Predict the 3D structure of the following.
Amino acid sequence: MVKYETVEEEEASSTAGYIVFIDHENDIDWKIQGGWDKEWNQEDKKAFICNISKLNVAEKMPCPLLRFNTVRAYKILLGQGVSQCCCKCFEGIDDIIRKADDFRRERNMEAARMTCLLSGSVFVMMLFGTLVAMMLTDFLPDHFLLCKTLFCASLGAFVSIWTRYGKVEMTGESPRSLLVLETTCRIVVGMISGFVAMKALETGMILKTLYENNTSCTVALVAFCAGFSERFIPSITEQVQKKE
C-alpha cells in the first residue's frame, strides 16, 4: 500500500504490510510489519538496502529555494522508488532517481532565476523612487544628469542580469541571501561603471562629438551600455593607457 500524503504515525503503523508516506517535515518514511520480507532471499535484502540508500542520498539533495509544495512533489517522485523497493521491484530505481533529480534541478534553476530577477526589480524600483523623490524635493537640483546616469546604468545592469540568468544554467543550490547579494552588487557595479562613463564623456575621452551635440541622450545611452557590458569600462581604461 502506498500513500503520498501527511499521516500520523498511528495511522501508518496500523496498516497491514507496509506503507510509504511523507511526514509533516516533508521526509519520506515507511512503516512495515513483521514477516513482510520473509520470502526474500539474501540477495533481495542486499538489493533493498542498496537501492534505499540511493534514494536516501537523493532525498537529501539540497533545494533551499523551493517552496514546501514543490519539495513535496520531488519527494513524491522519490517515494515511488521506495514503494518499488518495498515490492521487491528494483528495476528502474536509477531512472526514478534521475527523473526526480532532473525535476529538482529544473525547479532549483527557476527559483534561483526568480530570486535574482525579483530582487533586482525591487532594487531598481527603490532606486528610481529615491531619485525621483530627491529631484522633486530639490535635494539634487544641480545633479539631474548624475541621477539620470545612475538610473540608466542600473537599468543596463538589470537587463544584463536578465539576459545572463536566462542563458546560464544556475544550480539553485546557493542560499537565497547570496543570490540577492550578487544581484545587488551587479547593479551597484553597473552604476559605478555608468558614473565612470559619464566622466569619460565629460573629459572628451569617448564620443566627444555626440556629447557636445546631445549631452543628455548620449550620457543616458552610454550609461546604459556601461551598466550592461562588463567590457565597456575596461575598454575605456585601455584607451587611456594607449594615449599615455
About this structure: Confidence is low (pLDDT under 50) at residues 1-16. Residues 93-136 form the longest helix (44 residues). The two ends are 79 Å apart (CA to CA).
